[in-house]
């Protein structure tokens, strides 16, 4: 429970002895729209079954009519035993093959001297904590440090909180932090928490996990997906989690504003990530970090004696690896409290050596007690001097998660300059004659909307609607390419019915979208499977196509009814306005079944709905059958068929756009095309309320 709540004592009925209370959520920043929990959590917490399974369980019925005393207790006990038996079988079935994912080396960010600009980047808070890779599967959880050390026991309360989420097999990348009294991440608070020893976290001040990436899910390797799609899937997986589990928020563009506000608040800085980049287990320039103050890791190589009574040392000598040698970087003499000094003195006592472990000038080496280069400390400092020494250094804490051999100097690199390789010609050509939008404006729309669109279009075979001379003139579909679109547009060979194969188009980046726009593309339609798993569909789409002139309110009601029927069989679904006449009901699925089963399920589901309400719905494409009805177009779910993709522009008057919406918004919509490319800023702003839209971990049920 978050935010402010109101507990109201209700007036009782006449002669009623018990007190009645009403708990109501105050409309504050933590108040969500719609019913996200009941829309996503579709199975019973008791038996792990969805509504249709519960309704079909005749053996679970217990009539309580007239039952009192022992009879009532007996029936309740029988119901409890039945549910325990059914629930045990259901959970056992679900937990098969649920091994923990293995450790993966994390991706690291490159230090740069400025915040990258443009919508190609998403920006996150740089958390002041310990990097963690969390493998989870049901009640099994293992937490690894950035170097693969198993610290599950050290973070016992946190891993217990993750286990309580009962997650499918997954590997999550994130940061473990401690919060100070103001609720801000604080490294020294984390250090104090870790000093308590394994499993000795304070329940009143728990450690928190800020998850920012998802590397695998339910057996799927997600590292090849774009950053923005991995984050959307992470949001879908953990979006309803409560503290101490959080999904790290991000902003698209506007990185300078976020950086400035964090620096003013005394935070460490930001991490900026290429929205269209895959995950790579190394340090890359697709992830960059910009710091408010300079902070780096150093190896401790010695200490100097203090003249102050009770102070075990005056300063620590610092070094970093440069090539094969340890280069001296100066001293740090502030930032210690008495407990920290005692801890450091104890740690250094066992590492004493007579050998000089770094090349320190004789004047600064005088009176130094040397130690083996094993301890790593995090140091804040103002700058490096001309001779490579730290200025105004302050000790922040030891880093037990980082081996000394990996500590190197970080020097800010220039911020990566992203320049499109695609040149848009004839920018002034009018593409939408009714409203006047040009080819250049269309390209600008796709450039800025790309981070929101890529999770749905990238690495998916697509068909293009090309209108080289504008939407009012000749337009045509294209799904094959022999290389005329350029290097940014890829090809994947797909087997055809005759046994041969053809190269189908797919894109992976903003430049891929723009290369298609340069060739006159307006619309993007996608397969229900990915280019790297063509025979394993991962989404089902029911396109509600109303007869000409049919009241849109009837379409909205049909979409909500279909959502409810899908909910009854345990499937989460999402709504999208097509940008034309209808609504798409989108059902994300975990790949695993083939096209025959996919098509059969969609067909039977649509046929059952139309048979139940033949005056309102039809599952037949025939124009005659569609008179005054809504056609449930299930044919989108057969191999080779496509559907309009989220955020694609439509080749229709006004340059309307296919737009994802929350189910709670649907009732307010007056038609299926309320947004156009002119509403770009609105679409970007409202996307923050749609995190996780279109993603869910769920298999096609055996029905």
Automatic annotation (TrEMBL):
Its EC number is 6.5.1.1. PROSITE patterns: DNA_LIGASE_A3. It is an enzyme of class 6 (ligase). It comes from the Bacteria. Residues 200-291 form the ATP-dependent DNA ligase family profile domain. The keyword Lipid biosynthesis does not apply. One of its GO terms (molecular function) is DNA-directed DNA polymerase activity. The keyword Protease does not apply. It catalyses: ATP + (deoxyribonucleotide)n-3'-hydroxyl + 5'-phospho-(deoxyribonucleotide)m = (deoxyribonucleotide)n+m + AMP + diphosphate. Keywords: ATP-binding, DNA damage, DNA recombination, DNA repair, DNA-binding, DNA-directed DNA polymerase, Exonuclease, Hydrolase, Ligase, Manganese, Metal-binding, Multifunctional enzyme, Nuclease, Nucleotide-binding, Nucleotidyltransferase, Transferase. Gene3D superfamilies: 3.30.1490.70, DNA ligase/mRNA capping enzyme, DNA primase, PRIM domain, Nucleic acid-binding proteins. GO terms for biological process: DNA recombination; DNA repair. Its cofactor is Mn(2+). This is DNA ligase (ATP). It comes from Sphingobium indicum BiD32.
